[in-house]
Specification:
By secondary structure, the chain is of the alpha/beta class. The protein has eight helices and eleven strands. It has two domains: 6-148 and 208-251, 3-Layer(aba) Sandwich (Rossmann fold); 151-206, S-adenosyl-L-methionine-dependent methyltransferases (N-terminal domain of TfIIb), CATH 2.20.25. The strands form two sheets. The protein has a seven-stranded mixed sheet, sandwiched between helices. The protein has a four-stranded antiparallel sheet with strand order 6-7-8-9, covered by helices on one side. It is globular and about 50 Å long.
């Protein structure tokens, strides 16, 4: 799995925090609706980044553990959730999504913002599923999202984002035959001293066959698996490969 460098972690923490606010309420509502007051408010965030989704659940009285391969990202996560880290409500661990073990168990496991697309192969994704299954309590729920092939085809573009604080150039390409998309993010960001610091990060997304993803989850032992959109995680999508991004819901 990929790990982001320190300069890009700073940019990410400043400019890519909005996704958590979009998906957090839908995931929490789906998880709590059938469980009500009996919902186990323990959560693991796999690929937690700078902790934005973690913060949402912490603010709703969850005990949260976040894991990420990138220590620079975790530095920001610990800073962003400092009061919860101090109280013991939040824990952050540097670890690989495809090879981790934890002593605690969780009622809800999440992985969002296409974090698992950063795994290099279906075999690595299957290892992740097994790791999650081991720490998920019986009756627990695993919710994660993936960019589909349709979504990754849209990476064949170049975008420029300019503010008073930063200039960001994003250039992507999708290799249809190889099933992988690459994006190069570079630019300059203002430092606290008023100067500009250059950053550069290249990242990839693996395009996974969604039928194979479902089969891999069922092989691990999940009772049910379905694909959904974030606006209604309870409603299965009939043609998930036609979506740009899908959420996968696996119940143990």
């Amino acid at each position: 799995m990929q790990a982001y460098n320190p300069s890009f972690a700073r940019v990410y923490n400043s400019f890519w925090t909005g996704f958590a606010a979009q998906v957090g309420p839908g995931i929490r509502e789906f998880y709590e609706r059938p469980r009500g007051l009996d919902a186990d408010r323990s959560l693991l965030d796999v690929g937690c980044g700078t902790g934005q989704l973690v913060l949402y659940f912490l603010e709703h009285d969850y005990d949260v553990t976040g894991i990420d391969l990138s220590e620079p990202m975790l530095v920001y996560a610990r800073e962003n959730a400092a009061e919860y880290v101090e109280s013991g409500q939040a824990t952050f661990v540097q670890d690989d999504a495809s090879d981790f073990s934890l002593d605690d168990s969780f009622g809800l496991v999440v992985s969002t913002y296409d974090a698992l697309n950063h795994l290099e192969s279906l075999a690595a994704l299957e290892r992740c599923f097994r790791c999650v299954y081991r720490v998920l309590e019986d009756g627990g729920c695993f919710v994660f999202d993936l960019n589909t092939r349709e979504g990754l085809r849209r990476w064949n573009t170049t975008k420029v984002q300019e503010t008073d604080e930063a200039l960001i150039l994003t250039s992507g390409i999708y290799d249809e035959r190889g099933g992988r998309a690459w994006t190069r993010i570079s630019g300059f960001m203002r430092t606290e001293g008023g100067l500009y610091e250059r950053f550069e990060q290249t990242a990839f997304n693996t395009a996974f066959d969604l039928a194979a993803v479902r089969d891999a989850l069922l092989a691990c032992g999940w009772a049910t698996v379905h694909f959904a959109a974030i606006h209604d995680l309870s409603e299965p999508l009939l043609e998930p490969e036609r979506e740009a991004r899908v959420f996968i819901v696996a119940l143990k």
